[in-house]
Every structure is written in structure tokens, then in C-alpha cells.
Fold these 2 entries.
Entry 1:
Amino acid sequence: MAVKRNGCEGCTDITCASSKQVLAQDIAKGVKTAYDRIKARGMSACLFGSGGTCCRNCNMGPCQIIDGVEEMIGVCGATADTVAARNFARIIASGSAAHTDHAREMVRGFLETAKGHGPHQIKDVKKLMSLAEVFGIATEGREVKDVAIELGEKALAEFGKQDNTPISMLKRAVPKRQAIWNKLGIAPRGIDREIVEMMHRTHMGVDQDYENIMLQGSRCALSDGWGASMLSTELTDIMFGTPVPRRAIVDLGSLKPDQVNICVHGHEPLLAEALCIAAQESDMLEMAKSQGAKGINLVGVCCTGNEILMRRGIPVAAGFVQQEIVLSTGAVEAMIGDVQCIMQSVVEVAKNFHTEIITTNYRAKMAGAKHIQFEEEEALKSAKSILAHAIKNYKKRGKFFIPKEEKLDVVVGFSHETINYMLGGSFRASYRPLNDNIINGRIRGVAAIVGCDNFKLDDDVHEIIARELIKNNILVLATGCAATSLGRAGLLNPAAIKYCGASLREVCEAVGMPPVLHMGSCVDNSRILIAATQMVKQGGLGDDISDLPAIGTAPLWMSEKAVAIGQYFVASGAQVVFQDLPTSGAKKFNKYLLEGLMGPMGAHWNVAKEPLEIARLMIEAIEAKREALGINKKKERVLFDMEMRRDLGGNKAIGDAGCTGATHHA
Ligand code: NFS
């Protein structure tokens, strides 16, 4: 059912019950959300912009190009295909830059931690040692601290590397994929360098061949996926702990009526982790009590929320499309942000209430917000001064409304290590059982539902796609705001097996896991690259990611980061489906993305409009891969025999332990 606020006919549907309740309250009457702005704009999107054929790369234009109309090419002679390719490549560069700058901060924070500075520690020594080996660092008989410092320094050097050798983590890929990258000359050399080269090549008068532009587009995206994002995920895990299954809540209802509610919004978990530590310290709790509050309730918004959800079980109150709605409860003392995906409108929404918007990063200031710089060198002190500001706001809280009906329990924390343990057992952690279940057809394949949510389509798109996939016995991996949205839909709970096809249900039941596995934030899509690689290395499903019965979608993509992710998946051999691409105004280039990339990359982009159409396309792609692998031979349905039950039963404890909130270290 749509929420038609102010008679809003142009709005897409909000299906989330909690969001609907909040927006229906009197206190939210003065609030203008993106749904209202879509209606107020009263115009459809510019065709040149949405088709990718508006060129603003020099000052002879702007040139609006119409493909096939001779008079409507660029003043410089640029065609629709060149312009759309340059624009698309710049989207990839911008998305990669966001992940890269985030990753650099995490590496710097890691290095400080390794040196013993700040409130954090090296929590996952096993992972430290295995990543050190990838970087060729000797580990035998060395102090953890020394290995960590050397790893941090080598990791930092990956960003500004100037020689022509590939970045270190590419060697984690399967040999066939590495050979493809080498043959095409697209193995990334330095993380920053690939973004700079992409921007250069799309400057006026440089690269004008869309296929060549996309070679660099792929290299730039790969430097994100196998470079920046992977470094961020791995070092964050080593520092803050590799996620393990745990119970949590994903809902606006995670706000507490009698506590100081603080939303942590943005992306880099250094701030969020420091806030989590600070919020448990007695001086902060005392301060909260002195203001009349019973405690401090930190909740997450967007991907920083996913980071602390995965590692600490701290609730995610809101995904991207709910960031204004969470403030509309009137129950939030402060929204503390760092970088990325923070809408400018939150400052205006906050003006309706006592809520303060606090920016903490010199790279991301907002007019009308309070800026308190988060100093990483003095993380705890800095976090406390930010918290103190929020706590003092509690007394100013007026009328508020926290939706009660929804208590959306989720089980999260599925790092690729966890999946290994859950399916393979703690003594023989391995992807073998997953591969075997795919080969025998109980699990038809694996689908990733990732990326943002977006006001362009109804907010139940992820749910519709996921339900269709699991009904067809496809295991779903989720990250980012898509994962949050699937949590709100109840699909991150083991009880969601009731929506599964019979054979997937059997597997999930035996292992004790939900059919949709939350793998983390958007930088954690690198976990999916590793999981897919492990599946290939395990054997029986071909010798490259492009052979796997696997596919990804970011159906409600909003951010440029999602396009960078899509391109690194494609360049790694995985098919992806988006709801639209900003390239439809350039016929040849669009076709190249949707078909032509298959030649060099073994995978391509796909576009499908409707959620069920997206799901259908994904199912068909998975079945086609199964056919090509020759694993679709009809055989009698094998019920679990005793040995298999014992096998899986041994692992059940891990799933169950996680579900009771117990933690073990991966
Ligand atoms: Ni990803 Fe995260 Fe959400 Fe999209 Fe934004 S928070 S990094 S970009 S909107 S999933």
C-alpha cells in the first residue's frame, strides 16, 4: 500500500510498516522527504542525462547528443557512444574513488592500531597472518605487532604504487581470471593511479574509443574490488573482528524511548567503532543519566550501520531511503555522520525537532550542521566529545514516536569465513559442501543482491527478487542497503526458510542458517569476490568465476559506488543485473555493455525493469551455467542420508551458537 502523503501521486510506495507509521504521525507533518520532493519536482528525468549522452567535459558545450542524428553530435565531433562511455567510466572512477578514500582511512587507522596507538586492537590474528602471506610478508616466529606494521605499510603503498606490476591481492584470483586480466592489459597497478588515469582518459580529446575506455573502466573498477574495497574489508576485520553470526534488529523500532538515541550514519567504521567503545564507558553513561536518560542507544544508518551490525550486533535503524524518516520520529538526539550517502535534506528534517546533525569529517561538511572533527589520533577522546554533545540534547526532546509493531530479528555476520565454517565445519572449513549441494542441485546457484535503495522504485523490490530466488532454491547473499531492506522484509531470519523451495530449505534447516546471508557493507562485496573464488578453487564448478552458477543484482542502485561494484563483478567474470543504466542513449555502447563485454570478460551487464523480470533473468542465467557445467543431469532426488545429516549436524552448533548471540572467532 502506498503512503500518499500530501496527496502525493508521483511517489513510489513505502511498504515498510514502521516507515509508514512514522510518516503518518502529526509530529512528522512538517517534514519534507525525498518522496515529497519527487512529486514537487513535477518533471520527468532529462533524457540526455538518463541516456548518458549529455557531455559537460569541456566548455564548448554542454553538448546534448542524439544518437544517429548527424547535427546532434558534440562540437568536438564526439559521438553518443564516446560520450556515454566517458560518462559511464567517470561514474566508475567516482565510485571507486569513494571506496578508495574510505579504504585509505581504514589502512591508516590499521597502521596506527598496529603501532599500538588508539583504542583498537588486532583482533583477528589468524586473518592477519593469512593476509600477510598474500603480501609476501614473513610471519614465522615474528611478533604480531611487527607483522601488522609491515602489512599496514605495504597496504598503504598499494594506493600510490607507481611501477607497472599488479596490486598484491590480484593474485588471490583464480589463475584463469588473472590470465584474462593480463591478456587484456587491465591488471590494476596502483589503486589511486587507475582512478587518475580514468579521469585523464575521459578528459576532452583523449580516449575516444568506447571499448578502450571500458578497458580502463574495468581496470579502475578492479582496483576498487580487488584493491581498495578488499583491503578495507580485510584490515577492518583484522582490527575489529571478522563477523560471526549474531542476532540483531533491523528497524526504526530499535530507537529507545528512555535512552539517548544516536544515529551513526556514513561509512568508515573507525568513527562508529570509537563511538561504540565510548558509549560503554562509565563517564558517558553517567552523563546520560544526569540528563535523565537510562542509557545511550547507538543505532546505525546506511553502511556504517551494516559494519557495526555485522561485528557488534548493534541495530540498523534505517537504510538509505529511511534516513529522513528515522529523524522524523523526533526521538533522535543526534545523527553523527562521516562520509557518503548522507542526504543534504537531513539538516532540514532535523530542524523540525531537537535533533542535531553532527558532521565529523573535514571532507564532508554540511551547511546548517554542527561540525566536530573526529581526530583519529585521539579516537576515544574525540568520540566522547561528540557523544557528550548528543547526550546534552536529550533534555530538549519534545514529542516523539517510535514504531512498536515491528521487531525485526535478523541473523547477520556471514563473512566468507563464516560461510566456510557453517557449511564445512570448524575442523574442515571448506566450501566443499556448498559446491556439492550446488552440483547435486539442492542449491541451484548463488545470487548476490547488493547496493542501495532508491526512491525511483517501491521499497519492496529487493524482497520480491529475493523471495523469488529462494523459492527457486537459489541461495542469496546480500550486502549494503539491499541487505538492510531484506532484513526489514524478514528474510535474514532463519524462519524465512518457509519461503524457500524444498531443497534449499533442507540445507538451510540442517545448517541453521537463513536463506539470505548478510555479508556486510558495500565495501564487503569484496567478500563475495573471495567466496566466489573459493568456490572455483574448491573444484567441480569450472575454473573461473564466469563458470559458476552465480549472478548479482543491484536493482535499486543509487550511488556511483554501485556502478563501480557492478563493473568489478563483470570484469571478474560475474553477470550483473541493474534496473537501468545511464547508457541507453548510445546504441552501440549500450549493446557493448549488455553483450559485447562477454567476449573479453566472460560476463556482461544486464538490464531488467521489473523485480520479477530481474529474478527470472537471474534464475535463467544460473540454470544456463548449470547446463554448461553439465550438472543438470536428471537424477533421483537424494534425501539426506545419515552421513550427510551427521556432517551437517556437526555444523549446526555453530549456526545455533550464532543465533543465540554467542560469538566465536573466525
Ligand atoms: Ni552502498 Fe552504503 Fe546504501 Fe548504496 Fe549508500 S549506504 S556503500 S552506496 S545507499 S548501499
Entry 2:
Amino acid sequence: MFDKILIANRGEIALRILRACKELGIATVAVHSTADSDAMHVRLADESVCIGPPPARESYLNIPALLAACEITGADAVHPGYGFLAENARFAEILAEHKISFIGPSPKHIRLMGDKIEAKRTAKKLGIPVVPGSDGGITSDEEALRFARAIGFPVLVKAAAGGGGRGMKVARSEADLSEALSTARSEAKSAFGDDAVYLEKYLSTPRHIEIQVLGDGKGGAVHLGERDCSLQRRHQKVLEESPSPALNAEQRAKIGDIVANAMRELKYLGVGTVEFLYENGEFYFIEMNTRIQVEHPVTEMITGIDLVNEQIRIAAGGAIGFTQKDITFQGHAIECRINAENPATFRPSPGRINHYHPPGGLGVRVDSAVYQGYTIPPYYDSLVGKLIVHGRNRNECLMRIRRALDEYVVDGIETTIPLFRTLVRNPDIADGNYNIHWLEHFLAEGGLSG
Ligand code: MV4
């Protein structure tokens, strides 16, 4: 097992990792920018190192500074959390060259899944259902037209280096295709320095359902069910839940087994999330994330499994703590991502939290790194905290999250809590009747003010 883990992150996920380390008896090193000297993760870690000025590029993304912090503290492993360097294969390689463990998958698997064309090709080869499409890069308008005619319009042009919705263009008909290709290409080139694009059938009203997996790197892997993340705004997840209101136990077991088998064949190591679009009873692979995700607590609440503990033990060469048969899904969990933003305009609202009172009680979990008197800096994401609620069934979970949101007090800044109070009382949400476009439509029709 590791002796000392350096946490290359900030905010709630840095705290989440600290907690797992403490329970494992592992010493912790926090790193922070000069804007984060008063941050909770710095206070709670055994040691801390300042790694640079506020811009992430010069601090949380600064690989030489992180290596130096490992060197001076003697850390033998790095946990990257999510965002920042979590899916940077080169960072994982550099750590390996310095005999420091990266708590995550192999650089090979990070790189494979970072290329969306290669990821999809691999998924298909491993028996995972994929969206019909070009199955490779598109090199000419003629080739694009052939694929588009074969799969039928509308089609979607996606960037190989993309993901998270960047560099996507819909072509509704043959007349749109050439322009969609060139726009997607030039956007991809300027955003990622790579203009490779591919083509997919456009699914009009899918849900976003993702499968959580865990692999031991030796051909052992399990799945931990799904999360329904269909409630999104501008490709940012807003509310996540498990189980998905759209699936039954049989469908869950079927897609879960397909994904777990694929991960066994890959010899995947660590936690991973395989993302699907789900429409008319069918799953279509879109991408795989090779990191711990913001919404992982939803899975923890219904399985009772500590995913960060598993990540750390597996990275140290340990075995997965349970078999597929041991994993059962208990009740229902919902997570609300609460941001420091105006709840109607989503304008960021950093600043000082003058009064803070998080909710509590049975089935209520708050993952947050803020405290009363803390000033949210303007340089990073605007997450205030995650409210995760568990109930014996979806209805109990909804009742509980309504009262938990009513208890939550964050004064001094604007937060999206009022939006969530409305969402969890909306009849469509209460019925589980929503897809990836629901929230944008709701907001376009007035949202909080409508
Ligand atoms: C799609 C799609 C429809 N058809 N692919 C957006 C982010 C990226 N990860 C994949 N995305 C989509 N891919 C096909 N073939 C619609 C989206 C999409 C979306 C997906 C998940 C959650 C929210 C979304 C919002 C808009 C578009």
C-alpha cells in the first residue's frame, strides 16, 4: 500500500480523496495555488505545498511543480481527482518515469479513450453497442455523403479529440453536410489542434445513461450499475440519479455484463465510466471516461461501495474488494450539483459565504469543501457542493431531497439551490419523464421565472 498520496486537485474532490486516504491510514499531501491558501483541503491534509499562482495552467496543471511537490514531500502516489490532469496520459507516463504511482488507468488506456474514434472502434470490437456511423475518420465530402446516405439523415459530425459536446455539428440533410464537416473540422482544429472528425447517426431525444465499472488491471472487472445523467445544461450535468427511471433490472444486468466483459478483455485498471445514449430501448456507446466522476457518490449511495478506496487499493496492486454477485443495488439516490451562479441566468457568483448551513438527517450527504466565512475564488469551477440523497425508493428520495434543499442555507453568494427546489417538484422530473433536451427546453420556456 502507498505511504503518502499527493492529491493533485482542489475543492470537494480533494476532500473526498483525503477522507478515503485517512480511512486507509495513508498520509496526505495537499497542493494549492496562491488563491487556495485558505481552502479546506489544505487545512485537512497532513502537509501542503503551494504550487503556483491562481491560473490553473500555472498551478493545478503545472506538471513540473507537481513533481517537485512529490519530491519534497516523498509522496509515492498521486491522485488526480477529476478535471485538471485526470485524463492526461502524458502526466501518468511522467509520474511512472519518476517511480510515482498514478492512481488511475494505464497511460495506454487513457490515450485510447481520449481519441473518440479509437474509443468507439475498441468498444465495437469488444461487443459494446455503438451509434451507427463512419467507424473511423472521414477524409472527404464524398466519403461523408456515402456514410450519411447509408445511415440516414440527420447525422452528427463529431471531433475525434472532442468529447463533452465540443466540436459537434448536426447535418439535417445532404445540403448541410459539407458545411457541417468544414465547420466541425475548423472548430476541432482550433480547440484541440486536431481536425479529425467522424460521422454518426443523430439520435433526436435520447437519455444519457452511463455505466460505472471497476477493473483490477489483470482481467477482473465488475460493473456498479448505471447513472442517469440526462439533466444537463450546455453539456454540464445538473442532476444525476441511480437507478435510471428508464431501466429495469434485466436491462441493467444485460448492459452491465456487456460492459464488465469488455473491461475484462481490455484488462482495464481502476474506475471508469462508459457513457451511452439510450433511445427506444437501445443503448449506444458514445465515450468512456477514465477518471473518478463528479457524480460517483450516487453509485456509492446505492451500492455502499467506497469508489475512491477501491481506486487507491487497486492502484497499489490490490484486488477489487468484492465480486459481481456481492454487488446489490439498494433504493434510490439523487445528486444535485450546486453551483455559485445566479439560478436564472447562470452568471458565476464567486465571493464570501457569510452564512452556511448544510442539510443533514437520514440519507443526506453533502460533499463540499466550503465553510462559513470562506471566499469562493473566481478562477476555478463554480461548484459549491453536491447534495446527495438516498431513499428506499425514488419517491422517498424525492421527498427527502425536497426537504434537504429547503434546509440548505448559503448566504452571501448566489447559488443554484432555488433552481433545484423547483426542479425536484416538477411533474416531469417526479415522473422520471425527461431526456437530454428537457432542461434546455424548460429554461428556454422561462425556467425559474416562467
Ligand atoms: C450525440 C447526440 C445525438 N446523437 N450523438 C454531446 C456530448 C457528447 N458527449 C455526446 N453528445 C451527444 N452525442 C449522437 N449520435 C447528442 C448529444 C448531446 C448530449 C448528450 C448527452 C447529454 C447531453 C447532450 C446534449 C446535447 C447533445
